[in-house]
Amino acid sequence: MSYEVDLEVFKGPLDLLLHLIKKHEMDIYDIPIAEITAQYLAALDAMKSLNLDIAGEFLVMASTLVHIKSRMLLPVEAEADSEEEEADPRAELVHRLLEYQRYKQAAVTLDEYHILGRDVFARSCCEDTEDPEGNADLQPVGIFELVEALQGLLREAPPEPVHEVVREKLSVAERVSMLLKLLGDCQSLAFEALVSRRPDREELVVTFLALLELAKLRMIRIMQNQRCGSIWLFPTETDAGRELPLQDENFGYC
Amino acid sequence: MRGVNCRCRMKILDTAELKAVIEALLFAAPGPVRLEQLALAVEAEPDRVKRQLDELEKEYRHMQRGFVLAELADGYQLRTRPEHAEWVRRLHSSRPVRISRAALETLAIVAYRQPVTRADIEYLRGVDSGGVVKSLLDKRLVRIVGKMDAPGRPLLYGTSREFLEFFGLRTLKDLPTLKEFTELTRESESLLLDFEAGIEEEPSPVAPGENGEG
To answer: pLDDT at position A58, please?
Structure first.
């Protein structure tokens, strides 16, 4: 018997199995396990001979198949086994194959939709408005976006100087009061405007910590323009004059 | 809608004007606009705005305009027609958005099973999916919705608003129900049960009732 393998790239072992089952018109509910195992291993051999990288998952599936095959060879002890153990060693595999087939088809259906930027177009979305008041549809910012923004700033930070001598210790508490003062003056602040023009990493980190502290104390709201827009800080209206014990010890940074 | 409130009071728009203003807002909007946003901006009842939106939608459709009014992601947006995609792409002269089969599979799993962990996705697909999930996160089609209360606190993923916009869906409910293409699976599940039941029954070779004849 000769084996032919399509050079189609299989998305994974389940994909390959489905393909083999369909190609050899096997009944998925009664997979001839010896035959499919042989076909599957042959397919792996073919992939290997083509120098395709065989991902570990393909090998795991191969061992699963061989395992099932060996279990099928064992005599079924009618009374003891059929009551408690699963009836057929193939059941889980069949279940997985059918599940996978569902999502594979769902993927095909999704692909038929009119996809934005491929089939349909809208006016370009990323207009970075400079004025937060101008774009009223602000959405709360999640921690994921905040971390992304911090990484953005860190990326632009210059490399550490080699010859540094003395380092000024920056205090989170000082930075908190500075931010509060800035916010008091201008009602809204862009995330990028928080740090000096060429900040070092320490300044960035301290500023970010101060920002998180303020958010935790509910003294600022952090909002974002509709999407991929800048992040804006607003002071909360309540308790504007509240005095806080702004000491680093109180924040636990010492 | 802070911006609208502080503007001077606008006159009440008559119907024809209202329609034109709504059209203007849709044209200028950077993304889908919600009905309430429109209503607030034009200072009209949402019902009235909705009627105008419906009319605009019909006009664009019947007059063979170059765009349609699509209702999606909880809002309204002007979009080009799919049959004009080739022409628009020429103007853009950039690569069209491409989405791989692996990404689509992963999106389908996230969309139907959310919230879902990476391990779930990998079990269902049978392959490592870290790279795909990361690129979907970068494209904002998928977002982190929380952490699972299980050992290792794995991240849970769900679809984003951008996912709806990307596929032009109004809500997740607009996704075709999995049932539609699981008829085979449905059938198979009962078959599978029969099949398993059959295995259990097989060992007894003759049904007891049939022995009386001999």
So the answer is: 87
Residue B175's closest CA among A107, A119, A98, A101? A107
Q: Under a CB-based contact definition with an 8 Å cutoff, are residues A141 and A232 in contact? A: no
Q: How far apart are the first and last CA of chain B?
A: 89
Contact at CB, A227 and B104, closer than 8 angstroms? no
Amino acid, res. B93: S
> In angstroms, rounded to a whole number, what is the distance separating the alpha carbons of residues B200 and A79?
9
pLDDT at A51: 66
Distance CA A109, CA B167 (A): 11
Cβ of A91 and B31 within 8 Å? no
- The answer to whether residues B118 and B157 touch, using CB atoms and an 8 Å cutoff, is yes
B61-99 residue pLDDT tens? 898 888 999 998 889 999 999 988 888 888 876 677 888
Q: Which of B69, B125, B161, B185 to mutate to test the interface with A (most CBs of A within 10 A)?
A: B125
Nearest residue, CB atoms, B104 vs list A28, A110, A135? A110
Tokens of B78: 């002007």
Whole-structure pTM value? 0.62
For the stretch B120-150, pLDDT in tens is 999 999 888 999 999 999 888 999 988 888 8
What is d(CA B96, CA B137) in angstroms, rounded to the nearest whole number? 19
How many whole angstroms separate alpha carbon B134 and alpha carbon B143?
10
Q: What was the ipTM of the complex prediction?
A: 0.70
As a whole number of angstroms, the distance between CA A100 and CA A12 comes to 10
The string of pLDDT tens digits covering residues B3-48 is: 444 445 566 778 888 999 999 999 988 889 999 989 989 888 899 9
Domains defined for chain B, CATH in brackets:
15-80 (1.10.10.10), 95-200 (1.10.10.10)
> Whole-angstrom Cα distance, residue B25 to residue B28?
5
